[in-house]
Design goal:
The protein is an alpha/beta fold and 320 residues long. The protein has helices spanning 44-51, 73-78, 95-105, 110-123, 139-151, 169-183, 195-201, 219-227, 240-249, 278-288, 302-319; strands at residues 4-15, 18-29, 33-37, 59-64, 67-68, 80-83, 157-161, 187-192, 204-209, 212-217, 229-237, 255-261, 264-272, 291-297. A six-stranded mixed beta sheet has the order 6-7-8-3-9-10, sandwiched between helices. The chain is elongated, with a radius of gyration of 24 Å. The termini are far apart.
Amino acid sequence: MPDTMIEVNGLTKYYGEHLAVDNISFHVEKGEVVGFLGPNGSGKTTTMRILTGYLPPSTGAASIAGHDTMTGSLEARRHIGYLPETVPLYTDMTVEDYLQFLGTIRGMRGPYLQKRIDVAIERVKLGDYRKSLIHKLSKGYRQRTGLAQAILHEPEVLILDEPTVGIDPIQVVETRELIKELGREQTLLLSTHILPEVSAVCERVLIINEGILVAEDTPDNLAVRLRGTEQVQAEIRGPSADVIRELRALEGVTSARYIDTATGPRYTIESPSGNDLREKIAEMVVMHGWGLLQLSVVPMSLEEIFLELTTADDEEASAR
């Protein structure tokens, strides 16, 4: 089994004259959990449909576990578990019958199929509903049924498209925990526009906008690249005018702001990227006999990163 489980090279997709995916390339290694982000209409779902063999690319290539999704489509699909945004369920079947049916279509038989049905139902916590008709299940439990079919055949790669859309907050939390568990055993590509979801479960992010892959990195690395500065937050007990004056006088400080909060004064201090001021700030506080209640680096949030990358093109177009 290759170490690179998903390989995308120069992938392009047109719908008529509309360019949906524009020459994107990326890879996902074995055991990685990667978030695939983008606004609605950005090309996420099109890319995932190409990866899963539901659509052909216009140009470029994609492979799963070393198998081309076009020339080796059947073999590639054997390695994929896919949860589309709208799960194709046969609602007049019970959960168990549905999994039995799909397993049979996939060539699974006998004791092995029954064992995998039992394991899948247990993994997604559907044991109390295995004999229930799918149309009687809540949206959350229908999603779990979709996840059960995705993992039924022990795929090495899971591709999940908006797995928590439309379900209640409690089931969102439970589904995210389940995705984390699955990510410990399988390579996972997760498409979503819900940013806390990515922060909760993903090690790396791909961001697509208007069909173009605009970023690929860990959230922390993207934050440093985009912000270009280090930001520290401090809670200091002392005369605020003196504190802000001394902070601004520190070598390397480019700005220092004072915020009066319900819990007391808070200061936000910025410096050039790679310049950690925490030790200097602590020394300054001790030297003046003030109290240091809190001192921490403030990361750029995934929301800020996402907005920075997906609105820049729109702003540039408006400026023109």
